[in-house]
Structure formats: structure tokens, C-alpha cells
Amino acid sequence: MDDVTEVTEVTDGARTTAALAALGVRPGDVLLVHASLRSVGPVADGARGVLAALRRAVGPEGTVVVPSFTPENSDTSPHYRARVRGLDAGAVEAVRASMDPYDPSLTPAPSMGALAEAVRTAAGAVRSAHPQTSFAALGPGAGRLLAGHRPDCHLGEDSPLARLYEADARVLLLGTGYATCTAFHLGEYRTPGPPRRAYRCVVAPGGVRRWWEYEDVALDDGDFPALGAAFEEAAAEGDVRAGRVGAAECRLLRLRAAVDFAALWLTEHRRGPSG
């Protein structure tokens, strides 16, 4: 019997751009992108090819923004807890000693995926200053949108999410689900009296490495899939568009609508702190 080799079709850049346009991405858009390139399937030139398609879709006046979070430099993150689980005290201390301070020009964001790294490392990219929840962006709005990211405000009013809200940005879930919809976190900040917690990470002000602890809203994305489903069911016309890009089912959301709905839904569905 003859051997059969399965051939996976590679999507070219023009078809990817056309699929984004069919989904509703427009020239001039400010676009916050969460991407699973594995879900999208093979695209010519990989993550850089997807980035090129996104930039063609938003045009020279548009801006592409991605999360470039760095939980790897924090010992209060789920990433850290998973990394040290089962280790003895000496091994834990070795892990802590190996954790590099955040440098916006150098620190990678491996847990954010290949597209985020393609944006972060592209010529002309801008990155915000937060040592754990930075964003990276390309386009004429990048500097304005990412400026003023206060180090003790992950995703609230002094973060790029609030600037994206003001800019009437849209969110592209490119092969990902609502669990990744970072914009919902701004809704957490806009609930009455959101619970707060301590965070800690490695920084290097003046070139001196040290641990820094601060307090901010207790971020929780555990109910974001349910929140997203409710948002989609209640959404006004134009607030959510669905379609395929490559092999992936995708969503295009109006960020303002998503945040406004999240603030109301989270207020209703989450219990406040006791006492």
C-alpha cells in the first residue's frame, strides 16, 4: 500500500488579511489582540506573518496592541507557584535567585505566545512600564496608549486598558476564548470596592536588583468564560462579531461594551469581601 502523507495547507498573508477584514477589522482600528496561533493553523512566516496581516488590516493609521505580561518575575503569581511546587527550600531559593528583574526593552513574555513576542520584538514597538502586566504595541497610537502605566496598577485606570477604553478600541480573540479577555479586568476595577491583595516581583530601579511588594485589585479570571457567554448573549448589534481566521473560530468585540457589561455583571455575580 502506498504511504499517504497528510499535507496541512498554509494560509498566505493576503488570505489572512482578507479573513480579518471579513470579521470586521477596519483600517484605523485600535486592536487589542489575544491569539492562539496553534488554533489558527499554519500561516506563511508564522507569527510575523500573522502580525503583518494584522497591520495590513488596520492600515497605517491603526495600532496593534498585545499583552506582554511577565508572571515569570513574580513570586505571587500562579506561574511561580507551579514552578516551585514540590521543591525543597534550597531549590526554591535557587529559583528566586534566578528570577530576573523586569526590563521593558529586554524581558521576554514567553507565556503570552508567539504573536505577543513578534510584536514586542518588532522594530518600532513600544512597551508599557508595569513589571508584571505590561502591554506592547505597534502603530501611531502606541506611545499614547501605553504611556503612564503606573507600576502599582495592573489593569485599572492607570493602565493601557483605560486608554484603550477611551480610544474605543476593539478586542480580537484570535483563536482564543473569553478566558483570555484581559479587558474584563478593567471591569473588575470598576466594581464597587473590589477586593485587594499583595503582589511581589523583582525590579531593578537604578540598576539594583530587589524584590518589590505592592497592593492592587485582586485579579480573578476564573469566571470570565461565563461572563463572556453572558456578554455575547446580551450584546447589542455590532458589539460582537464572529468568524473564522484560518482554522480558528474568532471574536471581535467592542472593548467599551465588554468593560461596561463586565463591571455590571461582576458586581451582580461576585460576592464582596466579608467583614
Secondary-structure content class: alpha+beta
Residue runs with pLDDT of under 50 for 5 or more positions: 1-8
Describe the largest sheet. Answer: 7 strands, mixed
Number of strands: 9
Rg of Cα set: 20 Å
Proportion in helices: 25-40%
Beta fraction = 15-25%
The geometry reads as globular
What is the distance, rounded to the nearest whole angstrom, between the alpha carbons of the first and last residues?
73 Å
Tally of contiguous helical segments:
11
Strand order of the largest sheet: 3-4-2-1-5-9-8
Q: Please state the average pLDDT score.
A: 93
The sequence of SSEs as H and E is HEHHEHHHEEHHEHEEHEEH
Question: How would you sum up this structure, described in words?
Answer:
The protein has helices spanning 13-23, 37-40, 46-58, 78-84, 89-98, 114-120, 142-146, 160-166, 183-189, 224-234, 255-269; strands at 30-35, 63-67, 126-127, 135-138, 170-174, 196-203, 210-217, 240-245, 248-254. It has 275 residues and is an alpha+beta fold. The chain has a domain at 13-67 and 123-193 and 220-269. The chain has a 7-stranded mixed sheet with strand order 3-4-2-1-5-9-8. A two-stranded antiparallel sheet has the order 6-7. Mean pLDDT is 93; it is low at 1-8.
Structure described in brief:
It is built from 11 helices and 9 strands. The protein is α+β, with helices and mostly antiparallel strands and 275 residues long. It starts with 12 loop residues before the first helix and ends in a 6-residue tail after the last helix.
